[in-house]
Design brief:
The chain has about 110 residues and is an all-alpha fold. The chain has six helices and no strands. The chain has helices at about 1-15, 15-45, 50-60, 70-75, 80-95, 100.
């Protein structure tokens, strides 16, 4: 059965360093070919780089994300919206806005 052959093959590769080396070489060649094809494809979209340049760019570690400031964290967590809503409600309450006084702002404190 084919599935059994696949399992037996990988078991053999796991135990045989010669097969491991050949498999790694095959994978390296396939990666180089894929990089060359990707460089050609990118050129059709107006981006020009070689397969070697692509490999070099892939080898550069990604820049770690920057930490957010407290202000940015507040905005992400909804703090900006909550803060704005609080300001509107506070001003409405202080000015005896008709909406606040009549309690006709659905869902807000003060609703009658």
């Amino acid at each position: 059965m084919a599935v059994e052959d696949v399992k037996a093959f990988f078991a053999k590769v796991e135990a045989d360093q010669g097969l491991q080396a050949r498999l790694k070489e095959l994978a390296r060649k396939q990666e180089e070919q894929a990089e060359a094809e990707l460089a050609k494809f990118a050129a059709t979209a107006g981006f020009h780089f070689t397969a070697a340049e692509l490999a070099q760019a892939r080898a550069v570690p990604a820049k770690p994300p920057e930490e957010l400031s407290q202000e940015e964290l507040g905005k992400v967590a909804g703090g900006a919206l909550a803060s704005s809503a609080f300001k509107v409600l506070t001003k409405a309450a202080e000015s005896n806005c008709c909406y606040w006084a009549q309690g006709c702002m659905p869902g807000f404190i003060g609703k009658s």
